[in-house]
Design goal:
Layout lengths: L2 H29 L1 H5 L12 E12 L2 E5 L9 E8 L2 E6 L5 E4 L5 E5 L1 E2 L2 E2 L5 E8 L2 E9 L4 H15 L1
Antiparallel strand pairs: 1-2, 1-3, 1-10, 3-4, 4-5, 6-9, 7-8, 9-10
Amino acid sequence: MNQEQAGLIMIALMTLALAGAGWGWWNRHKRYEPLARAMNWSVPAGEARYRAEGLYVATTEATKPLQRVAVKPLAYRSKVVVEVYPEGLVLRIRGSNPILIPVGAGISAGRATWTIDRVVEPDGLVMVGWKLGEHDVESYFRLVDSDSEDLILHIEQIGKAQR
């Protein structure tokens, strides 16, 4: 076997690996299609009670923390503005329309140290638990210039008002 043949074999193997990864991601998107239809793309009228800027890290299934929810725009990391309204939580993920997590979705909030492919200092992430369609999910945020405790407090207040 000469160098050209070995190179062609390596290129073929890399092409197969990339095609397999693409096929797997496409299948994951298809599996989560019912969740995509359950997304709420509205924004409440009025003024937000609280607003925080930061980084959107991931949304995972609550019972499977290593399973990223492959629903656009929740499938990818991005900058985010999180706004708390009496009606729920609005996520303004860069490059997407705003998403409303209504208070009826069982919103709760807490701290986390890790999520899929991301580990930070102890309690460095804000975790928001909610229901997307019939699935319990958890979304993770890393706040930059905002106080995590204030965001958690405001989310818990609107969550308690619903209960």
